[in-house]
Amino acid sequence: MLILAAVPDIQLHKLRRAAAPRFTLARALNWGEALATIRGRPVELAVVDPLLNGAPSAQEIERLRVLFPSLPLILYTSLSPETAAVLLTLGQRGIRHVVFARYDDHPLRLREVLGQEGARTASRLFLEQLAGALAPLPKELRWVLEEALQAPTAVQTVGQVAARARVDRRTCERWFTRIGLPSPRHFLAAARVLYAHRLLQDPGFTVEDVSQRLGYSQVKTLQQHARAYLGLTAGEMRLSLTPDEALSSVVRRFVPRQRVRASVVAS
What we know:
Elements: E1 2-6, H1 9-19, E2 24-27, H2 31-40, E3 43-48, H3 59-67, E4 73-77, H4 81-92, E5 98-100, H5 107-118, H6 122-134, H7 139-150, H8 158-165, H9 169-178, H10 184-199, H11 207-213, H12 219-230, H13 234-240, H14 243-254, H15 257-266
Parallel strand pairs: 1-2, 1-3, 3-4, 4-5
Helix pairs in contact: 1-5, 6-7, 6-15, 7-8, 8-9, 10-14, 14-15
């Protein structure tokens, strides 16, 4: 899981100790870099300091909240009279997790907070929606499919799925056929479209941003997949469907009838 770290050097050092090896950090030295990183890389969680620019300010963090409401935010800052008003403002915006430097930022505590917020990421919520359909697969294959969603540029083909699950391609395809799922190729493509739809619910993402983030070589390919699996363009599916409706549409088409109900309930 990729975490945006928009914090000063001292906090970054402790955050790295807490994050390894489960999480990877993407450092942002200023709010412009933070915004560009969220739009261009598969950031699932953000750790931010209202003091990043020196003076305490809620403005840029509030902006991130408005642009990317599905992105969990953790405040990691110093406790002082100057930051108190900022923390109150951000708390009213729904940001609940705060870690104070030199007070409660032991790596174990940081790791706990990262894990709690990590359970609320877009990819984790999406995987929970698909849990019913994926349950009969061997755990190695389920892990690889989870990785394909969390690091979409690393796992894009059936061959890559099979290699990471340590089975041959034919065995991988046979498993999907056995439980009545579409071919791994169709499954990966449909899953990416659903994940793209979930990301597009955030006003801060353009179709081009989502296409880059999910590893499409061209926006045109995302558009083709959106039409194939949802019957809409990326722009249309953003406006016309809720995440639950998009999932139900794909589930009705691809998941065996006896598991449709379980998959939809999991959403």
